[in-house]
Design goal:
Length: 154
């Protein structure tokens, strides 16, 4: 049994395997490929390095957002907390565009509170229209990063 634990990845003190704390490497590779020329290759080492970096970044930002919630005696981290955490950590170039994206996401009904408000206001857009707009917004964000200086969500 100890052999299986060792073979499946290292354990932390919490009993969580390292591989369970990281984003799936296939997803990381897919995101990396989106900003590279079609014929570019990515080494396994590069994917693994990026996988560790983005996972650490997410933990770093989430920890800051969680601290804010704890100080405000709340249990749920929301998008506003993540934006505030990015700004507090000095990632202002990302916080402002992410806040704009979050507001747009809420306008389109991706957030339950915003969706309920839309229903109360008798919004005429159908759910299909909203889903199409959300999908379009996400693809515009990804596509724009290819042509920009790596500033997301602009």
């Amino acid at each position: 049994m100890a052999e299986n634990v060792a073979a499946s990845g290292s354990n932390d003190d919490d009993g969580i395997r390292e591989q369970d704390q990281l984003l799936p490497i296939a997803n990381v590779g897919r995101i990396m490929k989106q900003v590279l020329p079609p014929n570019a290759k990515i080494s396994k080492e590069a994917k693994e390095t990026m996988q560790e970096c983005v996972s650490e970044f997410i933990s770093f930002v989430t920890s800051e957002a969680s601290d804010k919630c704890r100080k405000e005696r709340r249990k749920t981290v929301n998008g506003d907390d993540v934006c505030s955490a990015l700004a507090a950590l000095g990632f202002d170039d990302y916080a402002a565009p992410l806040r704009r994206y979050l507001n747009r996401y809420r306008e389109l009904g991706g957030d339950n509170k915003a969706a309920n408000q839309d229903k109360a206001n008798n919004n005429s857009n159908s759910n299909e229209d909203k889903l199409e707009e959300q999908s379009s917004l996400k693809f515009r964000m990804i596509g724009s990063s290819k042509n920009s200086s790596m500033r997301p969500f602009d």
